[in-house]
């Protein structure tokens, strides 16, 4: 996994490349159950995404990339009986997550999302921001499961809920439609948006349950079911045959 800069890249383009790379390294570390290292890497990814909004470069990005490479080369895996983590590509098909949504509550699998396209012209900064925040939330939840103290676990779960809520709020502004026809068209045009939205909602349900906010968790789970039902009614969405989903 490497990152290459192209001559002539502007600051915003470089920020995008760095943020996507850090996100993917963070996901790879989650797969290896190196949760603390994943959290640190995804924290850097969030920082770079914020810089992309204001087209601002950061001299610390080189250090971030070096640290991420070092973490990936020497992952410090933590023991967790069952991580409940599934890694998907943003280009993966809807069928890769359908089997994971039968169970409600905190026992359903969490999804970490890899980004595939490095070119800025192929990106949507709102979707990307929501994706990085979502993965950061997943890292918090998984690290909370192996926290050494109850207070540390609680702090991580509080952070996970804040991040998951922010991620969903970012996506929800993109999911506003006037009728079923417009919804179907949006699913066909932006299948990755809905794939990520389902992953984010699943994480939000989990975080709410972990925070003992059962009613809000049930409300979010109902949104998840409605979203999945809408996707299921679309005839052969463009990403119906996805690439893969690897269980960690």
Topology summary:
Elements: H1 11-31, H2 35-53, H3 61-73, E1 85-89, E2 110-114, H4 125-145, H5 150-172, H6 180-189, H7 191-210, H8 214-232, E3 245-247
Parallel strand pairs: 1-2
Antiparallel strand pairs: 1-3
Helix pairs in contact: 1-2, 1-3, 1-4, 2-3, 2-4, 4-5, 4-7, 5-7, 6-7, 7-8
The Cα radius of gyration reads 17 Å
Task: Quickly count the helices.
Answer: 8
Percent of residues in beta strands: 5-15%
Shape: globular
Can you tell me about this structure?
There is one protein chain. This protein has 248 residues and is mostly helical. It is 59% helix and 5% strand. It has helices at residues 11-31, 35-53, 61-73, 125-145, 150-172, 180-189, 191-210, 214-232, and strands at 85-89, 110-114, 245-247. It has a three-stranded mixed sheet. Helix 1 runs parallel beside helix 4 (125-145) and helix 5 runs antiparallel to helix 7. The longest helix is centred in the middle third of the chain and has 23 residues, at 150-172.
């Amino acid at each position: 996994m490497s990152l290459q800069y192209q001559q002539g890249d502007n600051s915003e383009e470089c920020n995008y490349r760095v943020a996507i790379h850090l996100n993917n390294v963070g996901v790879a570390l989650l797969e290896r159950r190196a949760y603390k290292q994943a959290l640190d890497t995804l924290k850097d990814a969030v920082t770079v995404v914020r810089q992309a909004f204001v087209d601002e470069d950061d001299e610390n990005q080189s250090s971030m990339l070096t640290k991420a490479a070092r973490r990936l080369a020497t992952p410090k895996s933590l023991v967790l009986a069952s991580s409940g983590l599934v890694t998907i590509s943003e280009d993966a098909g809807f069928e890769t997550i359908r089997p994971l949504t039968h169970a409600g509550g905190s026992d359903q699998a969490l999804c970490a999302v890899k980004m595939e396209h490095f070119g800025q012209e192929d990106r949507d900064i709102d979707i990307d921001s929501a994706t990085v925040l979502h993965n950061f939330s997943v890292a918090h939840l998984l690290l909370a499961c192996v926290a050494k103290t109850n207070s540390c676990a609680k702090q991580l779960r509080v952070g996970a809920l804040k991040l998951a809520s922010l991620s969903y709020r970012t996506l929800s502004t993109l999911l506003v439609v006037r009728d079923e026809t417009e919804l179907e068209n949006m699913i066909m045009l932006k299948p990755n948006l809905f794939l990520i939205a389902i992953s984010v909602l699943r994480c939000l349900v989990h975080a709410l349950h972990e925070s003992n906010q059962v009613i809000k968790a049930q409300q979010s789970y109902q949104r998840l079911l409605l979203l999945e039902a809408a996707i299921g009614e679309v005839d052969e969405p463009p990403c119906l045959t996805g690439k893969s989903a690897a269980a960690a």
